[in-house]
Amino acid sequence: MSEANKVAIRVSGLGKMYRMYSKPSDVLMELLTRRKRHREHWAVKDVSFEVNRGEVVGVIGRNGAGKTTLLRIIAGTLDKTVGQVDVKGRVSAIMVLGTGFNMDLTGRENILLGGLCLGMTHEEVEGKAGEIIAFSGLKEFIDSPCKEYSSGMVARLAFSIAASVDPDILIVDEALSTGDMIFNAKSYARMREIARSGATVLFVTHSLQQIYDLCDKAILLERGSVVAMGEPRTVGYLYEQKVHEEMALLNEANIPSMQIASFEKDIARKAEVVSVSLFNQEGVPVAHLLDSESYKLSIKIRANQGVKSASIGFDIRTQTGVQIYGTSTAFCDNQKDVSLEKGNIYDCVFVLKPILNNGTYFISVAIAEFLSGFHSKEHYSLIQFVGDAITIEAKSSSVFPGLVNLKSAFFSLNLNDL
Ligand SMILES: Nc1ncnc2c1ncn2[C@@H]1O[C@H](COP(=O)(O)OP(=O)(O)OP(=O)(O)O)[C@@H](O)[C@H]1O
């Protein structure tokens, strides 16, 4: 396939501007007086990217970041203000819950309506109706009006219709967030299947887990612009770091003013991670964890400034981002208030006794500062988060399904009269 044919969606210099008026009469006044009475709000600003055929791409970002606006423009249901969007193939989009649904019609009637809107013929929809109803799991309700459905049920039907048309491009805007767990699992499997057939999937989610599990690429939007695009874990960690930082600022805003005054902003990091290493009992650096041994995790940090009440911690995640365990100097069993003196380098050591199943795992580390002191740890500021600082291979001497070995033993088998 030529490079040009590989691309399913090409977005360049895309922008969507809304005119914001402080009161409705300003619209008319602007027309009459020809004097500007609005301010411009760019919901999507100078966005450019490409998505290849067969790729599953997740779009993440805070509320109002522009995710829905971007997807709607690509799906062709919203006009752009500037830029170019090239989409190759049949697009099937599930936009904000049940858009396009007539809530007075029954589920069955909406299947027909939705199918026709997505470009299927009457016969095609009739032929697929059984499959759509079965996938939605709404057989008992299919002849009831949609207004009697819960929002999760509407989402299930919307997804089932859109996923049935064998689209070249499937666009899903958070429709799945209201579905139940079983339906979501089915939908994700279907999205994967659609991608495997060579189609492209573009979806919005607030779940980083979905990004790690499903996507080949992730796009992070912030105030209408792309701030990162690429490998899902890298983009996901950046997003996590940004959220942590914002939460820390919120916490900072909540603490008494004296402490706010002592908290310096816009400075280089107060402390930073210099190295992260794992050692066996003999003090030899290792990249493997055996479940029969214990290890030391060393996190070396440099204090660029004094930090009165710090916490240094780590977590272990699977390749798909599932957090298996995390702890810190402030939250482990023998928790400790750590203070750092400017200019010193510290080696923070944790002892580990892994009980992990075979596989690859990632250790991330972080340094934080308690703004309200060690004894009320709810206000903290993240100083540094290093995602996937080291990668380790775990080897288990037992065979078991799952991620961790809870070392359960067979106890007894007795006859029991009910
Ligand atoms: N019709 C509209 N008129 C004016 N502003 C709008 C309109 N639609 C969206 N916006 C603004 O555009 C920005 C992006 O909105 P959008 O719905 O795309 O964000 P989002 O990332 O999907 O948010 P969420 O996660 O909450 O669904 C927001 O600031 C929103 O207020």
UniProtKB/TrEMBL annotation:
CDD domains cross-referenced by the UniProt entry: ABC_KpsT_Wzt, Wzt_C-like
GO annotations of cellular component type: membrane
Entry's Gene Ontology molecular function annotations: ABC-type transporter activity; ATP binding; ATP hydrolysis activity
Superkingdom assignment: Bacteria
Q: What are the residue boundaries of the ABC transporter domain, all occurrences included?
A: 27-248
Question: What SUPFAM superfamilies would the database entry show?
Answer: P-loop containing nucleoside triphosphate hydrolases (SSF52540)
Keywords associated with the record: ATP-binding, Nucleotide-binding, Transport
Instruction: Give the matching Gene3D superfamilies.
Output: abc- transporter (atp binding component) like domain, P-loop containing nucleotide triphosphate hydrolases
Instruction: Give any Pfam family that matches.
Output: ABC_tran
User: What family, per the record?
Assistant: Belongs to the ABC transporter superfamily.
The protein's name: ABC transporter domain-containing protein
**Record organism:** Methylomonas denitrificans
What phylogenetic lineage does the species belong to?
Bacteria, Pseudomonadati, Pseudomonadota, Gammaproteobacteria, Methylococcales
